[in-house]
Write a structure and sequence with these properties.
Blueprint lengths: L6 H6 L8 E4 L13 E7 L2 E11 L4 E4 L4 E22 L5 E12 L4 E10 L9 E2 L1 H9 L6 E12 L5 E3 L2 E10 L9 E6 L2 E2 L2 E2 L7 E13 L2 E15 L16 E3 H9 L11 E15 L4 E7 L14 E8 L10 E6 L1 E3 L5 E3 L4 E6 L7 E4 H9 L6 E20 L4 E7 L10 E9 L10 E11 L2 E4 L5 E6 L7 E2 L1 H9 L11 E9 L15 E7 L9 E7 L13 E6 L1 E3 L3 E3 L4 E4 L8 E4 H9 L11 E15 L2 E7 L9 E8 L8 E6 L2 E2 L5 E4 L2 E5 L13 E6 L2 E6 L2 E4 L7
Parallel strand pairs: 8-9, 12-16, 17-18, 20-24, 25-26, 28-31, 32-33, 35-38, 40-41, 43-46, 43-47
Antiparallel strand pairs: 1-7, 2-3, 3-4, 3-5, 4-7, 5-6, 5-7, 9-11, 9-15, 10-11, 11-12, 13-14, 15-16, 18-19, 18-21, 19-20, 21-24, 22-23, 26-27, 26-29, 27-28, 29-30, 29-31, 33-34, 33-36, 34-35, 36-39, 37-38, 41-42, 41-44, 42-43, 44-47, 45-46, 48-49, 49-50
């Protein structure tokens, strides 16, 4: 068992060696701010982890440390090694394993890091042991995952069956997919090794059916189109035993013509719109303009190439060919003026642009230089854009700096992009005098926020009068974090704000609205290549179990992984603008985050307890909980009529107190003075002394053993020796002491 040392113990036993200490992201729960980050810290077994710009992302049990945030780890003994585990690829420039030789270690992040856990080692502490699973254990773990979720990394041992050919792309071996089973003689194809990379001595080495292998990778439960596949994702392969067989890979020899840009454009012009050539060409050219900056995640970028080095052409009309999402073999931007060889099919895009096939191979023969652009403000960008014809694009790129004035589409966790408008005025809250960054990728990989100062490098496009960047998923940099922290509203508060607006008007800034989902059809299926869920319209309420929520959330963005949570009484935070469109709404494009629901069970109290709770609320404020208040009617203020009555209550029927008022309560029958009742509803502080429940529900309470029975043809009243009985369905009810009507 791991020994736990306190800081004092570590000092007393200076010669001791601490065991590994693991600090998980959940240790920081509830700390920090999500928009800009703030100082957080956690101490586990005497080891302290601090970050000055961070917050706890409880949804993923991670700690988000922002760009330029400083991480400090201190311990009572000398740290020798740090082993980090990150969420996806967000590592902030940190290595997974860091060698240390000090009691304190600091690091400044180059970008955002999402830390799942860090293992702090001392002395010669061994690295964490990776579990080895058999196939049955791996299937059990993968089956228990949420849809499209993945596990930590494991070693998985088994026999290969149903082996596909080693995949070859453009004459280069890529990967191989097969299944692994417990017994090669009795294959049960459940667990798939998806796009494995079997190698020996640094060269591709195919798996054959019957090979015993040890895979290393994450398990995943992949769900698409109602089909589920359990996978080990892109694992490495170690051969434990091999069957005899041919291990050669048939790589077809492809003869490709090497052509210049002019010839590529000639071939493209001869195509019908939307069509591509049947064969690939090698196109030689020099990069002239970077259209979409290099994306290190997808390892591609879009750029124009020309025959004449130094040309700044960026259109087919000027003799340039578009390399669309090319993959440079240097794994970085080709730069400006680079000599490249592009292996791709040539296609004529639907709008007449001649370009390469997506994700084509790019060999960089000579690396280009850095791109130089003119720095301008938003006013100048609008001037340039308004001078363009509709759908025309500026030949030059510009560096545009401004402040976020409006968010059209909040940050997408599916695509890591966001659509915002920027202005020269840091107080602007509209799209007027603003430039649209359409589906840009913020370097913070999180919501940018109103008022943030940002910078984007792009060509300018006039799209039907909207001045925006040309292209999508362009990276942009957040220079100054947003100063705005949105108010968190209840459904009731959100409805009041929305209903006070004019029809189709919006709030100038967005809010976070919390509540229960009551009506949630499955999201619309987005017909993209990845078939991801896009949005849906839901109804939300302040309390659970309401038939229809009073607030409509119109076309909210829902992650596909969260669709199973779209059920009645699931609890969510919605980030968006409030509007009124035939009723209270959250405008299109909001983001929905599912969180743990608060305890909303009805609280049972007497009148004195209800008064204490209610008078602690702000004047005219209502409780967030539903209360069932039991007491006696001590004064009737509004006579019973059509199932509604108004009265005062006290814990003593003889009390003359007039400070707990029940207004217009729905009740089964008249409640006279002295009647014991239970009233259910929300408490409201009327004036600091009087507490009310308005429009709640009430019922009459009878002494123990007494029931309220309405006389019908089947129910008869019987009096025996002065005792009142009711006979119904052959059952005898004693109503001694009860009032019978």
């Amino acid at each position: 068992m791991k020994k736990f040392f306190s800081l004092i113990a570590a000092v007393l036993f200076a010669g001791s060696m601490m065991a590994d200490v693991v600090i998980s992201g959940s240790a920081f729960a509830g700390q920090g701010t999500s928009s800009t980050g703030s100082p957080v810290s956690a101490t586990v077994e005497g080891v302290t982890f601090e970050c000055d710009k961070a917050y706890s992302d409880d949804a993923h049990s991670t700690l988000r440390c922002y760009k330029n945030g400083v991480i400090t780890i201190t311990a009572p003994e000398k740290i020798t090694k740090l082993i980090f585990q990150f969420y996806q690829t967000y590592n902030g420039g940190l290595a997974n394993e860091v060698v240390v030789d000090a009691n304190e270690w600091t690091y400044t992040l180059a970008s955002q890091a999402r830390i799942e856990q860090v293992t702090v080692s001392f002395g010669d502490s061994p690295a964490p042991v990776v579990d080895t699973l058999n196939v049955a254990q791996a299937i059990e773990i993968a089956s228990a995952l949420a849809d499209n979720a993945s596990s930590k990394e494991y070693f998985i041992e088994g026999f290969a069956v149903n082996v596909a050919d080693y995949y070859v792309e453009s004459g280069t071996p890529k990967n191989q997919t097969f299944y692994i089973v417990e017994d090669a003689a009795a294959p049960d194809s459940v667990l798939q090794a998806f796009r494995a990379t079997p190698q020996k001595e640094g060269k591709a080495y195919p798996v054959l059916a019957g090979d015993k292998v040890r895979l290393f990778g994450k398990l995943q439960k992949y769900v698409k189109n109602d089909k589920t596949q359990l996978e080990v994702v892109t694992p490495t392969v170690e051969f434990l035993s091999e069957v005899e067989g041919d291990r050669t890979i048939d790589i077809p020899v492809v003869e490709r013509d090497t052509i210049d840009v002019a010839k590529a454009l000639e071939i493209g012009e001869a195509l019908d719109k939307g069509k591509a050539t049947d064969i690939e060409y090698v196109i030689k050219g020099y990069s002239s303009v970077i259209k979409t900056a290099y994306d290190p995640g997808f390892k591609n970028e879009s750029f124009w190439i020309v025959d004449e080095k130094g040309s700044k052409a960026a259109s087919n009309a000027d003799g340039a060919f578009l390399v669309y999402r090319g993959k440079p073999d240097t794994e970085k931007s080709v730069g400006i003026g680079a000599l490249v060889y592009v292996t791709a099919k040539i296609q004529k895009y639907s709008d007449g642009v001649i370009e390469s096939w997506s994700n084509c191979a790019v060999h960089v023969e000579e690396q280009g230089g850095e791109e130089t652009v003119e720095s301008i403000n938003v006013t100048k960008a609008l001037e340039i854009g308004n001078a363009l014809a509709d759908k025309a694009v500026s030949p030059e790129k510009y560096e545009i700096t401004g402040y976020v004035s409006y968010i059209y589409s909040f940050f997408s966790k599916d695509f890591n992009n966001e659509t915002v408008w920027i202005s020269d005025n840091p107080e602007n809250t509209t799209t007027e005098n603003a430039f649209e960054i359409y589906r840009g990728k913020p370097n913070t990989a999180a919501e940018v926020g109103w008022g943030a100062k940002v910078k984007i490098v792009c060509q300018i496009k006039n799209y039907g009068g909207t001045i925006e960047n040309d292209g999508t998923n362009l990276p942009f940099e957040v220079l100054e974090a947003s100063p705005y922290v949105p108010d968190t509203l209840s459904i009731e508060e959100a409805v009041d704000i929305a209903n006070a607006l004019g029809e189709d008007a919006k709030t100038p800034k967005y809010h976070v609205i919390k509540g229960f989902i009551q009506d949630a059809p499955l999201p619309y299926n987005y017909k993209g290549s990845d078939n991801k869920w896009k949005n849906t319209t839901i109804k939300m309420s302040q309390f659970p179990n309401e038939q229809e929520g009073p607030l409509a959330v119109y076309k909210a963005n829902i992650l596909k992984a969260d669709t199973a949570k779209l059920v009645q009484n699931s609890y969510a935070y919605v980030l968006g603008y409030l509007t009124k469109h035939g009723g209270a709404q959250v405008a299109e494009g909001s983001n929905v985050e599912f969180v743990e629901a608060p305890d909303m069970d009805t609280v049972h109290v007497n009148v004195a307890e209800a008064l204490a709770i209610g008078t602690n609320l702000p004047v005219e404020g209502k409780s967030d909980r539903i209360y069932a208040v039991t007491g006696f009617v001590n004064s009737v203020d509004g006579e019973f009529a059509e199932g509604v009555e108004t009265f005062y209550m006290a814990d003593d029927a003889a009390s003359e107190a007039m400070n707990f008022l029940v207004l217009d309560v729905a009740i089964e029958a008249e409640a006279p003075v002295g009647q014991k009742v239970e009233v259910v509803g929300r408490l409201q502080n009327a004036d600091g002394e009087t507490v009310t429940i308005e429009n709640g529900k009430a019922r009459l309470l009878w002494p123990e053993g007494i029931e309220s029975i309405v006389l019908t043809e089947k129910a008869q009243k019987v009096v025996v020796d002065g005792v009142i009985y009711i006979v119904r369905d052959n059952k005898l009810f004693n109503l001694q002491g009860a009032q019978v009507r």
